[in-house]
Amino acid sequence: MKRLENKVAVITGGNSGIGFATASEFINEGANVIITGRNPQSIGAATAALGEKAYGIVSDTSKFADIQHLQEEVKAHAEKIDILFINAGIAKFSSVDQVSEEFYEESFDINFKGAYFTIQALLPLINDGGSIILNTSINAHVGMPGASIYAASKAALLSLAKNLSAELLSRKIRVNAISPGPVVTPLHSTAKFGITDEQLKQMGEGILSQIPVGRFGTPEEIAKAAAFFASDDSSFILGTELIVDGGMATL
Ligand SMILES: NC(=O)c1ccc[n+]([C@@H]2O[C@H](COP(=O)([O-])OP(=O)(O)OC[C@H]3O[C@@H](n4cnc5c(N)ncnc54)[C@H](OP(=O)(O)O)[C@@H]3O)[C@@H](O)[C@H]2O)c1
């Protein structure tokens, strides 16, 4: 029997990069998967590529009304779920003197507020014994110029894994975090990072030199870690974090 047979998973930001690879991995492990994202075209393309076990919902995680709508749509489609992968996120970089209130709010509204209220909205639909997985970042552990806001928004998720695990003990819902190091996805672009071509080039070279295994990770390598936390293979593991970073933070 496959590890996620008869399970239903919601993956926020499942139309691209790590979220898409995780949707594919969960389906390979037997799950039905609901993915979210802001763009109807990319949600449509992703669900078509994932096949009949995938269902897409357009929902902007930074908008409270969209999160309530997501709850209604998930309930109508699946009634109950077993796995929630909080993956939707942005990574914008700026030096501290350039950070505006809007910059701060965009990052925190998506990376933390959206994560928090998505969990709150979907909790009543999660079966007892379910698994919540938070996608954080190695930036929660290492210091990097320009990353103060992004890093803080991800570090906040690490405390959620502990506190919600404690709060949800009676329902046997485990909350764990994955902290990826640099991974090759569409995130690594000037538009998504909010930096210039030259800055992107310098950042890429600088980061590569800090990864002991000498390469970026793949989305599939993060998806394998998510499948571990989603399955009963990790049944005695809660409130903790798996760093998946080619040794960047630990060697
Ligand atoms: N790649 C890395 O090196 C790396 C390292 C550490 C952590 N991470 C984390 O991994 C997660 C996935 O990133 P990725 O690398 O796979 O990047 P990606 O390919 O850009 O994927 C990001 C996903 O998040 C979704 N998203 C962004 N804002 C959203 C919003 N407001 N509402 C709903 N969905 C939203 C995007 O969908 P739409 O844009 O269509 O809405 C997309 O599906 C992020 O949380 C990121 O911080 C990535």
TrEMBL record:
InterPro entries: NAD(P)-bd_dom_sf, Sc_DH/Rdtase_CS, SDR_fam
UniProt xrefs under PROSITE patterns: ADH_SHORT
PANTHER family listed in its UniProt record: 3-PHENYLPROPIONATE-DIHYDRODIOL_CINNAMIC ACID-DIHYDRODIOL DEHYDROGENASE, DEHYDROGENASE/REDUCTASE (SDR FAMILY) MEMBER 4
Homology family: Belongs to the short-chain dehydrogenases/reductases (SDR) family.
Source lineage: Bacteria, Pseudomonadati, Bacteroidota, Cytophagia, Cytophagales
Any Pfam family: adh_short_C2
GO molecular function: oxidoreductase activity
Species this protein is from: Dyadobacter pollutisoli
Statement: the UniProt record of this protein carries the keyword Translocase: no
UniProt protein name: SDR family oxidoreductase
Gene3D superfamilies: NAD(P)-binding Rossmann-like Domain
